[in-house]
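Input record (one chain):
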Amino acid sequence: MTSRRNRSGPSISLFAFQDIITSVSGIIIVMVLLLSLELVERQEQDSQRITSSVAAEVELAISEAEAELETLQGSVQELNVLLSDIAETSPAELQNEIDSLRRRIEEKEQGLKQLRVQQEQLEEEKEDVLVQQFDRKDEREQLAQATQDLADLQKQIEQERNDDRLVFTLPKGFKKSGWLVVVESDSIEMAPLGRESQPIRFTSRPARFLGTETAADQFMKWARAKNASSSYFLLLVRPSGASLFDKLESRLALSGIQFGFDVIGENQSVIHPKRGAAP
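The corresponding structure, as predicted from the sequence alone:
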């Protein structure tokens, strides 16, 4: 017998499969190499950044340490100077200086206490002054009002002295109410006799519908509204009011109103602007 069997089927070739495996393996190897290279480069860059950052921090720490060292050296020098001064000064001198400083502190504290007491006293005095000012406010107001009243009274007395106003009174026992009437060129002013009253004044004005309503028309309308039997009118005629009086006289006579008249100067004062015909 032979050791090899005869093959009846076709032979199988693995060459193509080996090519595929080889190609894939080569690609994987190339990719692994590229990734490894990239990782190495990244590590180098990171190490450089870390190294530069650490170097900056170290430099900053060194500069701060140097500054602190200089400060400490200055403090040491000051302490050395202080120790040298203390070494040169005897304990008795140090005690005397300490006692002197304590006395000065006590004097300052005592002065401060006195200033505070003075401040409190000034505050109390200020409050007292404010209270007094508030209490005297009414007195000052009353004094100011009294001063003003006195000035007004003196002014009124002076006006009365300089007043050349004619004063008319009704006869004793006269029972009718009297009215003093001053007739001027285009106006009539009147006031009651014997009592203070604001005077009444009539002047020409446009009529309600047509024409002009004269001072005489207004006076006659007012007089008719009064009780003619219980009123008496004393007409004082200025030279400029002569024509107005002529018209008014006839109208009064026709109306049955009792009146009398007299003549006064053009600038003669008769009726007071506030008190009227009162003395």
